[in-house]
Amino acid sequence: MTAAPTTSAQPAGTAVAEAARRRTFAVISHPDAGKSTLTEALALHARVIGQAGAVHGKAGRRGTVSDWMDMEKARGISITSAALQFEYRDAVVNLLDTPGHADFSEDTYRVLTAVDAAVMLVDAAKGLEAQTMKLFAVCKHRGIPIVTVINKWDRPGKDALELMDEITERTGLTPTPLTWPVGIAGDFRGVLDRRDGSFRRFTRTAGGATIAPEELLSAEQAAEREGDVWRQAEEEGELLEATGAEHDQESFLGGVTTPVLFASAVSNFGVGALLDVLVDLAPPPVGRPDADGAVRGLDEPFSAFVFKVQSGMDAAHRDRLAYIRICSGVFERGMVVTHGRTRRPFATKYAQQVFGRERESVDLAYPGDVVGLVNANALGVGDSLYADRPVTFPPLTTFAPEHFAVVRSRETAKHKQFRKGIEQLDSEGVVQVLRSERRGDGSPVLAVVGPMQFEVATHRMEHEFNAPVALDRLPYTIAMRTDEASLPLIASSGGVEVVQRTDGELLALFPDKWALRMLQQRHTALTLEPLVAAQ
Length: 535
Ligand code: G4P
Description:
GTP binding; alpha+beta; globular; single chain; translation release factor activity, codon nonspecific; 8-stranded antiparallel beta sheet; nucleotide-binding; Alpha-Beta Plaits; binds guanosine-5',3'-tetraphosphate; Rossmann fold
């Protein structure tokens, strides 16, 4: 391997200055709330794409793994499979993709470890739905500030004040609307901008294909034009003021309040306002604590962690991409860094931004940015990379699996491919692989949060690794962390099995909570701790 720079040739202070311009966030929502539509509208606003796809809809893109890949195919626009980066005003915005289906919430959780803020997208008619609440809980747990967007105001929906109550009651956050709708849901006239009292009038464009021109009117002009509807918005605005629903930056960053915007993503209305809010209010990257809690400052040498690994994107090349989020320093393509887990050098010659099927080399990147490393076979989810001074970032939490199945090769001659495939799926975090002496290496247990992960694993084993597999579901639903000392007692009770996860964790598997409770009551000294629940 040729010697390459490990220290950045960039002037001192570059990483800090560039980080200050970064806004790295993800959209959390329930399927169908309009995440893809909003993403497209954001890209349109930032002029990444010229025109939003003529088809706003799901036809032809009911993907299971990556919504964006399918969306890109269906609409002919370019979006990376992990992050969309664009410049807006003087900021660089990184929008990270989160899988929509609840079965992939573990993936989404990992993406949320790589963002500095989240946009909670709410369907005006449905309010806070199940998946939104789960993802909100993850953000809360991680202390990620949340901007709320009430979407689809152009369609009949709930009352705006009622929605604010719902946010307060169900999330504990105090909503601080920055805009307030003029006209009830389904009669969207525009928004009252609570920061200056002006009226931003909503104008439709054909199919919402271009940036909706927002007409800016004064309060007097608005009153003249919209009459009672405007006055009602003003009255509700006063009501909000009286209840203290005003934006306060510290409370927002501290996870006490959430700024709220009203929008119609499909008509591209309110999207520019959201970008402005992200640039003006969302936090830039800050130094990240390592596994011991010591903060690695932005200006320290390069460091990053892998938050997502994706294989088989390009069938012709069989490549494996590891996506890293940069935490400190400057990333320069070609630099040789150290892979924290193996302590081996890792060459970053093939650093790319992946735009659908097109790939572009990334020459420089800064804290907050996402870079795809090609053919990164050694890298697994949660791994750290660094230059100069070693750092290990805290391991990414693995969720408590709820579904279990024994996997075995359908073709005995293919045991090599079988082993390789299982190992890879494990390191990518597609499934958790659990082993025990009793089951042997040829038939480990796969554990997942959502059963759709089984489908992905089976499909990839057959098509990517050429090792067709059969799965036999096991009757367990609960995994608890245990230790060596507790093993003999647990093993002697019927219906319970102990297995070991690749990270060394010993897990006891129970069919249901009653079986667990019974064992706990019988032997109070046993170590049986819950794993992090898939929020
Ligand atoms: P998702 O990624 O969150 O799953 O949602 P997606 O963007 O695919 O949007 C889901 C549906 O909601 C799409 O319609 C989309 O056009 C629609 N939609 C998104 N934003 C808005 C909005 O602001 N107003 C209105 N009225 N609709 C919006 P679809 O799949 O074609 O279904 P349909 O409901 O149009 O039949």
